[in-house]
Design goal:
Layout (H helix, E strand, L loop, with lengths): L4 E6 L6 H8 L21 H11 L6 E5 L13 E5 L14 H5 L11 E6 L2 E3 L16 E2 L11 H16 L2 H4 L4 H4 L2 H4 L1 H9 L16 E4 H10 L1 H8 L12 H9 L4 E2 L5 E6 L4 H11 L2 E6 L3 H15 L2
Parallel strand pairs: 1-2, 1-4, 2-3, 6-8, 9-10
Antiparallel strand pairs: 4-7, 5-10
Helix pairs in contact: 4-11, 9-10, 12-13
C-alpha cells in the first residue's frame, strides 16, 4: 500500500467569546448562546486527540485541523499538522458558517488533501493501534460497514439522512449493484448475525432502505467529491447556503452511502469501534473499558451543568496516555 493517507479533524472552541459573539450575530434573541454553557465548552482533549494519533497511527501522512479562525492553547510542533481556517477552502459567500455539513461537504476543496483521507469529528478518538488497512484496502477501497438499516424518523437530522439516501436511490439503484456485491452486504464474519438478519429482512424492498451508521471515523475518496461536484454541483451549493443545519442539507454520509451502494468498499468488522454516551460519572467506566478494547471510541457527552466540572476533569484524566 504505497498511497498516502491523510486525517482531517474539525474542531471549534465553543467557549471562545469571540466565536460566541460571531455566532450570536446570526441568531435570534431566543437562540443566542452563552459562552459559559457547558454544551459549547471545549473540554481540552484536542491535544490528547493528536497524542493518540501519533502513538497509534504513526503512519499517517498529514493531519488537517479545521478551525473557525481559532488555535489550540498548546504549541503545534509536528510539521504534519496543517491548520486551516474555514476561509482557506470554503467559498467566501458561504461564510461564516456554523453548519458542520457545510464544512464537511467542502473538504474536497483543500488542494493539498490527498485522494485517500479519513474524516474525524473531534470526539472520535483513536483508542488502540490502527493500521492503514483499517481504513483502506491495499487497492484503495474504503473499509466500511455495509449492512442495511432502515432510516428511523426521530428528529430533523433524520430528514438529512433521508436526503442522502434519496439521492443514492435515484443514481445508484439497488438492482444494479446488490447482486454483484452480495457478500459485502451479507457478511456474518464482519457484521454479526443480528446485522445480517436485519439486512435480509429488508431485501423485500426494491430500493436501498438505508445503511447502518456506526458514527465512526470515515475513510473517503477525494475524487468522488470532485466527480459529484461535476455531475451534481447543486448538492454542494444547496448545503453550503445554510449557515446553520437545515433539513434540506446533505452530509458527508452521502459519499459514504455512495461507496456502499456501488460496492466500492471492503467490509469493516463491527468490533472496530463504538460510540459511548457520557451523562454521568458511571458512564466513565464504559469509556475506560472501550479505550482498551476498541480501535476507535466516540465520546458523545450530554453532561448537565451541575455535574460538568467533576465529570469533565475525570474524563480528561481517564483519556491521558
Amino acid at each position: 500500500m504505497a498511497f498516502p493517507i491523510d486525517f482531517v479533524v474539525s474542531w471549534v472552541d465553543g467557549s471562545d467569546p469571540t466565536w460566541v459573539a460571531k455566532k450570536n450575530e446570526y441568531l435570534t434573541d431566543s437562540q443566542k448562546i452563552d459562552a459559559n454553557n457547558s454544551r459549547y465548552r471545549d473540554y481540552g482533549l484536542l491535544k490528547n486527540w493528536f497524542d493518540r494519533v501519533w502513538r497509534y497511527a504513526p503512519w499517517v501522512n498529514n493531519v488537517y485541523l479545521i478551525t473557525d479562525n481559532q488555535a489550540p492553547n498548546w504549541a503545534i510542533e509536528d510539521s504534519r499538522i496543517i491548520t486551516l481556517d474555514h476561509e482557506d477552502f470554503i467559498p467566501k459567500q458561504y461564510l461564516p458558517t456554523f453548519n458542520s455539513s457545510v464544512i464537511e461537504m467542502n473538504l474536497w476543496r483543500i488542494d493539498e488533501l490527498n485522494e485517500h483521507f479519513v474524516y474525524f469529528n473531534d470526539d472520535m478518538f483513536v483508542a488502540q493501534p490502527v493500521s492503514r488497512e483499517d481504513f483502506f484496502t491495499p487497492e484503495g477501497l474504503p473499509v466500511l460497514n455495509g449492512s442495511l438499516r432502515p432510516i428511523i424518523a426521530r428528529e430533523m437530522f433524520s430528514k438529512i439522512v433521508f436526503n442522502n439516501m434519496l439521492f443514492v436511490n435515484q443514481k445508484f439503484p439497488k438492482s444494479d449493484y446488490f447482486r454483484k456485491h452480495t457478500r459485502k452486504y451479507i457478511n456474518i464474519r464482519n457484521y454479526g448475525i443480528v446485522a445480517v438478519l436485519v439486512t435480509i429482512s429488508n431485501l423485500i424492498y426494491h430500493n436501498w432502505v438505508g445503511f447502518f451508521e456506526d458514527h465512526l471515523a470515515y475513510p473517503n475518496l477525494k475524487s468522488w467529491f470532485l466527480d459529484l461536484n461535476t455531475t451534481n454541483p447543486e448538492i454542494f451549493t444547496q448545503t453550503s447556503m445554510h449557515r446553520f443545519r437545515s433539513p434540506d442539507d446533505y452530509t458527508i454520509w452521502l459519499l459514504k452511502n455512495m461507496y456502499l451502494a456501488t460496492g466500492t468498499f471492503s467490509p469493516r468488522n463491527k468490533n472496530f469501534g463504538e460510540m459511548v454516551g457520557v451523562s454521568n460519572v458511571n458512564d466513565l467506566r464504559k469509556v475506560k473499558r472501550l479505550l482498551k478494547s476498541k480501535k476507535i471510541v466516540v465520546i458523545n457527552d450530554s453532561i448537565d451543568d451541575f455535574q460538568a466540572s467533576s465529570i469533565i476533569n475525570k474524563l480528561v484524566n481517564l483519556m491521558e496516555i
